[in-house]
Structures are given as C-alpha cells and as structure tokens.
Write a structure and sequence with these properties.
The complex is a heterodimer. Chain A is mainly beta. Chain A has no helices and 10 strands. A 6-stranded mixed beta sheet of chain A has the order 2-10-9-4-5-6, with no helix packed on it. A 4-stranded antiparallel beta sheet of chain A has the order 1-3-8-7, with no helix packed on it. Chain B is mainly β. Helices cover 0% and strands 46% of the residues of chain B. Classes of the chains: A mainly beta, B mainly beta.
C-alpha cells in the first residue's frame, strides 16, 4: 500500500525556520511528481510547491517563493520542504501528495501541523 | 492566474437524494497534449483529503460508483447519484493545467438535511 508520512512540524517563532519531511513507501518514488499542499486552520486547501521526479524542476506558490525550498532524496524515498522566514500566515497543516493528476496516484499523507507564533 | 470557482459552497442534501457540485475555471483547462487536468477531492471531517476523480471523469480505485465527474473546457461537475451518510465532508476541485498555481476551488461542504 502507498504510504506518505509527514514529520517535522511544530511551533516556531516568526522569522524562524523548519524542515518538513515526507517518507514515502509502497511505490517507485523516483518516478512521480510530488507536491506539498497546506490547509490553514478551518480553511481550504492551498497548493504550496511541486517537484518533478528527478528533482531538477520545481515550482512554488507566490506566497512562499523565495522562502520555501522543495527537494527530494530518491535514494531515501523522502520529500522535503525547507521553510524559512516563517510568518503567522504560514500556520497550517502541511500535506505531501503523490501527483494529484496522474492515474494510480493522488494519495495524501496524514499531514503535519506547523504553527508560527511568538 | 487561473481562478477556480465552486458552487454552491454549502450543500444540504437528503439521504438517498442526488447532489451536484459545480467547478468553473477562469481559463480553459485543456492542456497542449489534449488532456484536461482537473481532479476532485473529498475531505471527511478530521481526515486528510482523498482523491475521487482525476482528469475530469476517471474514478479512482475504491471510489463508489455513485460518484461521477464530467465537464470540459472551463465547466466541470461532480455528481453523487444517491448521497449516503459517509459522503458528508468538503469537496474540492483542483486544476493542474496552468502553472505555477495548482489552484483549488474554495470547497463545497456537503451535509445531511
């Protein structure tokens, strides 16, 4: 079975940094686009970033461009999101998602909560 | 940027009755390869989202056949033929044709009357 397990969330002060991880299993990780999507408390889903299978191409939402960096380690089947210069509005549950648009894909992890507050 | 507009935002439904959710995009979602990258997701209370439909009308494995997706260009619809109690939750459409910006709709909350 496909499993996506996020970790690394927590409480961080404004201006601080955090690194999220997503451990993937049950599929050939190195052949799929991977995405990060976030959900502020009580609100809807917001796409954050995506990365191509070999890690050579990335795209970001305007709201996080220049502050967040997506990366992957295909040898370790792990997706990352390095977040810096964090703001209160970055507070959300962060999900990793296996290609939301491809056949036999579209799975979500359980999410990890990031809280930015002093 | 592409804007995805869902309606209604709240949908009270009687058990056993049909339900329909509209998702409209500000630009055509037909990609240069002829595919239309429009997916639908269900988020039950307290759970992670789950994909139901990809590329407009393809149902994921394990998704009950009472769920169906249709549409083209800029207008898309998710239909539930007979609503069951387990269908309560929020439904989102998402486009993956125009980047950057894998835009989601605002979400439609389905509840039982």
């Amino acid at each position: 079975d496909v499993q996506l397990v996020e970790s690394g969330g927590g409480l961080v002060q404004p201006g601080g940094s955090l690194r999220l991880s997503c451990a993937a299993s049950g599929f050939t990780f190195s052949t799929y686009w991977m995405y990060w999507v976030r959900q502020p408390p009580g609100k809807g889903l917001v796409w954050v970033s995506r990365i191509n299978p070999d890690g050579s191409y990335t795209t970001y939402a305007d709201s996080v461009k220049g502050r967040f960096t997506i990366s992957r380690d295909n040898a370790k089947n792990t997706l990352f999101l390095q977040m810096s210069s964090l703001r209160a509005e970055d507070t959300a549950v962060y999900y990793c998602v296996r290609d939301p648009f491809k056949e036999v894909a579209g799975e979500w992890g359980q999410g990890t909560l990031v809280t930015v507050s002093s | 940027d592409v804007v995805m507009t869902q309606s209604p935002l709240s949908l009270p439904v009687t058990l056993g009755q049909p339900a329909s959710i509209s998702c409209r995009s500000s630009q055509s979602l037909v990609y240069s390869n002829g595919n239309t990258y429009l997916s639908w997701f269900q988020q039950r209370p307290g759970q992670s989202p789950r994909r139901l439909i990809y590329k407009v009308s393809n149902r994921d494995s394990g998704v009950p056949d009472r769920f169906s997706g249709s549409g083209s260009g800029t207008d898309f619809t998710l239909k539930i033929s007979r609503v069951e109690a387990e269908d309560v939750g929020v439904y989102y459409c998402m486009q993956g044709t125009h980047w950057p910006g894998g835009t989601f709709g605002q979400g439609t909350k389905v509840e039982i009357k």
